[in-house]
Write a structure and sequence with these properties.
This protein is of the alpha/beta class. It has 2 domains: 152 residues, Trna Endonuclease, Chain: A, domain 1; 143 residues, no CATH class. It contains 14 helices and 5 strands. Strands 1-2-3-4-5 form a 5-stranded mixed sheet, with helices on both faces. Helix 7 packs across helix 10, helix 9 packs across helix 13 and helix 11 crosses helix 12. The longest helix is centred in the last third of the chain and has 19 residues.
Length: 313
Amino acid sequence: MDFTQRMLARLTLRSQLSDMPGERFEQLIHHLLSLLHPDFVAVRTHGNLGDMGADGLLLWERELWACYSPQTENISKIKEKFRSDLDKALEKRPGSFDTFRFAINDLKGVHPELSILMSEAQDKLRPRQVLSYGWHHLWADVMRLDQLAAEDLLGCPLPIQDKTYGIGLTDLEALLARLGDQRQTAEPLAAIPDVNKYKLEWNRLTGDVRGALMQGIKHSHLVEEYYAGLAAPDEGDQVARGFRVYYDRTRDRTDDQEKLWSALQEYILGNANPSLSSMYCAWIVIAHFFQRCDVFDVPPDGWVPNMADRSSS
């Protein structure tokens, strides 16, 4: 997949996972593993037998899979399911697996209590292995798919052609109006510093994130035109303040630039399934706030990237 397809696939997958129930998540994992592994066996429940401690099996690698979709803060239920699946597997499939792998639908990672349970299970299973399968593993496997397979998995087209030339102010209006409605109240923030031409390098914005930002910058003037045409002259500043508050709160949780970029996109677009056009509009809005220096850090005065920094960006 090319750059645009990757970014749309990533945004679509994150949007789907954000509120995906357990049964649907299990179906997604089954579908993905079936596309990637000819030896994958999707296990269904049957009467009193249940699933015998496995949601799926990789026969050649002797790997047993279990799926979890913790859309609740009740960690005790998650721990109970983990123990139950593992105990069933050891009782009913003792000689059929070398690895117990659980897929978890949590974009933030594994709950700390569950991580302790994993360590205890690893000691119990040795020399067998206990492995988790989270967002980064899932995304890496989706990237192994060709375009048709990825579209089949995500249930949406991933267009190849570049459509940024078709984005206009009317495409942005609904999105910017939504931002105005959901803006967080914020006290006036410190004065915004002047944009620095080395801001990309200072924040080490590389790869697809850098590419998306550069695409957005080409059309960021449309956001200025939108706010200039409003009857409320301070609307743009008020939205920017709320955007900065959201960015700062997100930054407190992670300094990973890809995670920050994803969080900003999701803040703008909400939970609706994204389209190519809406994704481009989100890039334009982020680029506008980037150029205003509401998001991402500003380099210290006098900072200049060395040649190593430039060659890696």
